[in-house]
Fold:
Amino acid sequence: MPRKKALILTTHYHTLHYEEFVKPIVSIISKIAYEYDQISIFEQPPSHTYLQQYDAIIITGTSLQDMKYLDHLKKWKKPLSTFKNTIIGICAGMQVLASAHNIPLIKCKAVGVKKVKCLNKEFKVYDLHQYSVKRTADIEVLCSHKCIEGFKVKNTFHFGFAFHPEVFTPQLLENLLLLNKPTQPF
Structure:
């Protein structure tokens, strides 16, 4: 049976951020025997046909001050919104995913450790974000605190998290990646 394969779409501009926002993701997916490739949001998106080789796309986060990825949302809109397999957007990656699906962003700055409610369970999470998403008919809210912390785009396997699951809840990422068509990630 062939190994599953993920594309890690990085959002950081400064190379120093790799250690904090990408390396933990690499560690998690390597642990569950995923192969992976990596591309930056600053690059041209690959073709639709090329992207179909991946079982999942993981869009990483970046620091609060690193906002250059916002200038590159438009070119990634179609490749992400039409991807048929799993997408997991984390922090800035959640914003990229939301933008690809025309889900409005709202200001909601949160920094630090807190408990959020995810599908009737409380989880300790690490927040480092400036935005969340507006509640719309296009999403199912999975996690919330003062704002939406996690959502699923309806009729897709696209998940966005304002918090960083790689810090305290790596099993969330593992579950989403190990299920072919995830429905219950927690």
Observations:
- The first helix runs from residue 18 to 21.
